[in-house]
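Case study B.
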Amino acid sequence: MDAFLLAMKAVIDNLGATVVLPIIIFLVALIMGAKPGRAFRAGVTIGIAFIGINLVIGLMWGTLSEVGQKMVQNTGVTLNVMDVGWPSAAAIAFGTSVGLWVIPIAIVVNLILLFARVTKTINIDIWNYWHFAFIGSMVAVVSGGNVMYGLIAAAIASALALFFGDWTARAVQHFYNLPGISIPHLTTAPGVPFAIVTNWVIEKIPGLNKVKADPDTIQKRFGTFGDPIILGLIIGLILGFLAFYNAGDFQTVLVKTLQTGMNLAAVMLLLPRMVQILMEGLIPVSEAARDFMHRRAADRDIYIGLDSAILIGHPAAISTALLLVPTAIAMSLILPGNDVLLFADLAVIPFVVAMFAPLMRGNIFRMWIAGVIELGLGFYLATNMAELFTGAATDAGFAKPEGATLISSIGDGFLWPPFVFARSVGFIGVAGLLLLLVILAVAWFFYLKNPNAWEELAGAPPREETEGVAAVAD
Amino acid sequence: MAPPKRILVACGTAIATSTVVAKAIEEAMKARGIDVVTRQCKAAEIRSLVKDADLVVTTTPVPQDLGVPVIQTLAFLTGIGKEAVIEQIAQILKK
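Model:
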């Protein structure tokens, strides 16, 4: 029997995410009531998406690795951790041994907390369960491949997302005018503490507390930073030149530089397209899960948990992110001890700042400051966790190119939740998970005891003003 | 045969929620025999792409002065009120 199980494990390990994940997605979709034909097609689509993502990551990782090594030789700048972007992070997260099980686990955690009347959110944003898988994968790598620790971490992370979703729901509903919605999204939610502290400090500083910036001017001046293809091309050309300016005669330098520019511009367009396929494959699962949870949560006060993508169109989020792109590139060059070379995730910055807006009333200057602080800290978290991130990529079966550098991404490599989870478990093992669970439970207890004060802290208006909105939400 | 109607579907990233919306619209319109082509974009790109579109459907706030009908809706994500929005889209496209 052992021999059989070992053989099974070997088969699964060899097949990897392109085969195992489709099977699991098919089964999960069936269990939650999707039609077999649709469920099957969903599974196959997801496998195809993984093959596509693998190809593009191969192109990017290969290009960036060569460029990175040459740049280090040429300039002495040691930015040897490449930012492969959140689409890669998501694919890696779903592709690890933890990621395979994250969807059923997070749904169960959600239903339990809903029926215990702890949370009001049903998180139908199945796609973004990758954040929980990502945290779990980091924990699994740090504990030497202990998948069970990884799964527990993913479960706690899914509860953390619900906590943030509930806590910020009224602020989001009011500021973004989205009745009944909450945002249990772990790229956006970790910004809330930064926003609270930054806002509090700025309020206390005369002069600064009056500064405002105009979103329209910023969008006109910095618009280019919002176009990933052009951004990828420009960064690619600059990196290519720095890496290859001494690679030979003029012709060689020109060819190498232009090639790097086009390769990286291609990655900026192709990577998101591949992830669209993954997303498409998840739709039947999302729909089935949504109905499954709706059926079990009938006639309850609920918030529907959605992706923060629905917030990103707001001018405050766009403008702040546009300003932060050049700022972040500058920070990556000047921050001492930073190893991360930003690239693919310059496009994710709006997600990081979207939850600042309600508390800061859309004040772009304040959002920019909070963003600088969160990303500034993020460089160090990402540098610290790059080995783990790369380890998770290997676990997910992504082909590592010859002489590859380490990898990371802003979402979620720059953020504190994966760091806190991974390092707690790294230091004190399973006790770390227990500790995090207790901290979350205590925070939740105090929130439920005094929800209004907490919600106002996150930017919600005082209770009586929002009676109308609250009525819709309920 | 009339050329297919072009629908620009916007969200924050052109990856996540807009994919769900675009696929849902394609399925619903196909079921009604309306020929559509969807294109996904980010809210920030909408101005440069809108001139090729007959209708904009978005999950996130976008400018209202685009010159084509704009539907901002979460119905395809939450499942609540989805039929009404599909009907609205079909009405606009039939014009």
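Residues 2-473 of chain A form one domain. The remaining cases will be described in the next quarterly update.
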